[in-house]
Amino acid sequence: MYLSISSRLMYALCTVTLLAGTVSAVHAADATPSAHVTILATGGTIAGSGATSTTTVGYTAATVGVDRLIAAVPELAKVAQVKGEQVFQIASENMTNEHWLKLAKRVNALLAQPDVDGIVITHGTDTLEETAYFLDLTVKSKKPVVLVGAMRPGTALSADGPINLYNAVLLAASQEAVGKGVLVAMNDQIHAARDVTKTNTSTPDSFKTPELGMLGYIQGNKPYFYHVSNRKHTADTEFDISKLDALPQVDIVYGYANVGPVALNALVGAGAKGIIHAGVGDGSLASKVAPALTAARKQGVLIVRSARVGQGIVARNGEANDDALDFVVSDTLNPQKARILLMLALTKTSDSKEIQRMFYTY
Ligand code: SIN
Q: N or C: lower Cβ tally within 10 Å for the chain?
C-alpha cells in the first residue's frame, strides 16, 4: 500500500495514539481486580421482593435470580471478577441437611479450582448462621468463604442487600480473609461462623457475636480484622462429607417451665440418633425430663446438654452429672449449632468421650 508522507505522518500519529490507547488499556486491565469470586445464590430476603418500597416485613423471599443480584451491584466489578451460580432458590427456613451437603460439595469443588479465589454465598438470614457453621466444619480450603444476606428485600427503601453483597465480595476477594474460617458479612461487620447469631427478627443490625466478639469491620472498601476465632475450622477439621448423601438424625428439645418428656420421647421414637437439650440456665434438666434423657442415652441416643440462654459455657458436671449419665456438653455452642456438630460427629464415632473432645475443639 502506498502512503503519502502526510498520510504516513497521520498513520504514525494514529499508531502512537492507538498504542497510547493500548498502554492505557493495559493500565486499565492492570487495575481490573485479579481475584475471582464465585457467588453461589441460595435465596432468602437478599433475593426477595415486596409489594411496596416500605414493605420491610411480609414480603416474598427468594424471587430474584443471581444474575439480577449481580447486575444490581455494578460496583462488584471494582473488587473482583465475579461469576454467579444459582444453587437453590429457597427461603432459608426450608434449608435441609441435603441442601447443606450439596452446597458444601459445590464449595469444595469450586475452591479446588485454581481459578477460584473465594466464594460468596447469598442466603436467607433465618438459618444463615447454621449453614455458615456447617460449612466452617466441612469446607476443605483456606480460601475465603463468606455468607451474606439481607434483612430487607431489594424493593425496600434502604435495602441492605446491595451493600452487604458488595462487602461480602470485597471480603472474599481479600488476602486478609484467607485462613480465617467461614465468615459472615452483614451490616459492615465481619463475624466468625461459629459464634455469630441472628438476634433480631427484622432490623438490619440483627447479626451479632454478643460476648465472644465479632472479628472486624468493612469500611472504606477495606476489611479490618481485630480478632480471630481460636477454634479449629475448614481445612483443619476431621469431617469429610465428600461421600455422604445424608446425615444422622439429630433433633433439639427445648427447656421451659412445666416441660414434660412428650416431645423428647416422640423424637427418640421417630429415630433420633442424637438429642440436643436446650436447657434453661446452665443447661439444667427438669426432673420430668431427666429420666427420659437417661433412658434415651441407655438406648444409644447421644445426649448433648446445651443452653437456651445464648451466651456462656455449659459447665460439664455442673447442672447434671455428665460423667455418670454419659452426656456431652455443648461448651458455648447454641443449640442449633450444637445440632450441626453432633450430626457431623456421629458420622465419625458414637463414643461420647470423643464427641466431647470435638465439642471442645470446634
Ligand atoms: C429467609 O431466611 O430466607 C428469610 C428471611 C431473611 O432472609 O431475612
A: N
* 171 shares its domain with 311: no
Q: Which atom of ligand 1 is nearest to the CA of 149?
A: 7
Structure confidence at residue 225 (pLDDT) = 98
d(CA 141, CA 123): 20
Q: Is 135 found in the same domain as 109?
A: yes
Judgement on whether residues 84 and 217 belong to the same structural domain of the protein: yes
Ligand 1 centroid – CA 361 distance (Å): 30
Give the 3-state secondary structure of residue 115.
Answer: coil
Model pLDDT, residue 25:
36
Residue 245 domain-assigned (yes or no): no
Q: Which residues contact 226 (CB under 8 A, 6 or more apart)?
A: 215, 216
Q: Are strands 207-208 and 216-219 parallel, antiparallel or unpaired?
A: unpaired
User: Could you tell me the pLDDT band of residue 32, with boundaries at 50, 70 and 90?
Assistant: low
Inform me whether the pLDDT recorded for 17 exceeds 80: no
Catalytic machinery residues: 45
DSSP state letter for 315: P
- The answer to whether residue 320 sits within a structural domain is yes
Q: Which residue range forms the structural domain that includes residue 226? A: 5-236
Q: Which three cell numbers stand for residue 75?
A: 460496583
How much is the average pLDDT of 12-25?
Answer: 35
With CA atoms as reference, report the closest residue to 93 among 153, 41, 44: 44
pLDDT in tens, 67-82: 999 999 999 999 999 9
CA of 6 to the centre of ligand 1 (A): 68
User: For a pocket test of ligand 1, which of 49, 125, 160 has the largest count of ligand atoms closer than 8 A to its C-beta?
Assistant: 125
When computed from its CA atoms, the radius of gyration of the chain, rounded to whole angstroms, is 25
Q: Which of 255, 253, 274, 272 is nearest to 263 (CA)?
A: 253
Same structural domain, 258 and 226: no
Dist. CA 200 → ligand 1 center (Å): 12
Structural domain tally of the chain? Answer: 2
pTM of the model: 0.91
